Amino acid sequence: VTVTSQNRKKYELFHKNVAIYRLTGTWCQYCPYMTEALNNVNEYTKDHSIVLEFHNGDEYSLPYGMTMDMAAYLNSRFNSNAYPYCIYSMTEGSGDRTVNDIQRLVKARLFEHPACTGIKASSTLSDGKLVVNATVKASASGKYDLGMAILKDNCIPTSASAYEDVYNDVVIGASGNFHAMATDAFDLQANAEKELVKEWESDKLDADNCRVVLFTLREADGKVLIDNAVDFKVGKGVEYRYN
Fold it and tell me: In terms of CB atoms within 10 Å, which end of the chain has fewer, N or C?
């Protein structure tokens, strides 16, 4: 037995959340098992992860390109045809759907890739237009990018063949850099901040049921990964959360 101990306060300034891209569909009879597992992970895992649900082939799927949706595209990046499937901060993909497996995968991402950024933000919602004023602060110098997704909870499908009664964390909109850094990614020195504005407009926005997810991207070991993520209610905001 090998035991490894880390004092994260010595090198990780900000609280880290692992972004879990869950690929699912209302037609999949196995997807509810993943939902149950994600709902039953321990509090530590829940406190260090944010689930974003990308739907495939149903009324909640979002198009990507001419022939597929976002879920199918993400699935293809990891050479998997399986649903349900989870991608952990763009560095690890797995179809495992037990509580222990998910907890192990989240802790591995926390261990291998400590947060290099913190995010704070405020937002306003008026006449279906969302404006998010965000600030990214780096604890280590590097090139970073900021992405945004809009999630909706309490979604009840109108037609499905194998489904849950209510779907939460459903991605109803996402910025183009949801899987890779954009061409306007920016450099930040350690302890420096970058202010950015993100906007999204849709008649689907609901202040009671919609949330904003902001996530930072960076490169590590030749891969683009999601460094950190925060979420908050539409029209609300979040402050830096320190480790």
Answer: N
